[in-house]
Specification:
The chain is mainly α. The protein has 5 helices and no strands. The longest helix is centred in the middle third of the chain and has 11 residues.
Length: about 70
């Protein structure tokens, strides 16, 4: 996950991020170290606070295509 890099690029401390999310600073530290991962609902809030998408934080690249990969028949 790229939480630490994203947080630092926004000039935020762990304390500031924890306050914005309503969690303990130690929780942020565990997410950044990989010791623990945020729940899906928190991942969405985290991405909103950090101004990115959940996929960005998870390291997934998204590619848009003209046709959806799955289509209803």
């Amino acid at each position: 996950m790229n939480i630490k890099e994203r947080r630092k690029s926004m000039n935020m401390t762990q304390e500031e991020l924890s306050q914005a999310l309503g969690v303990k600073r130690s929780t942020i530290a565990m997410w950044e170290s990989g010791e623990n991962e945020p729940r899906l609902s928190m991942l969405v809030r985290l991405s909103q606070v950090l101004g990115c998408t959940p996929n960005d934080l998870l390291g997934f690249e998204t590619h848009r295509t003209e046709e959806p990969a799955c289509r209803a028949q």
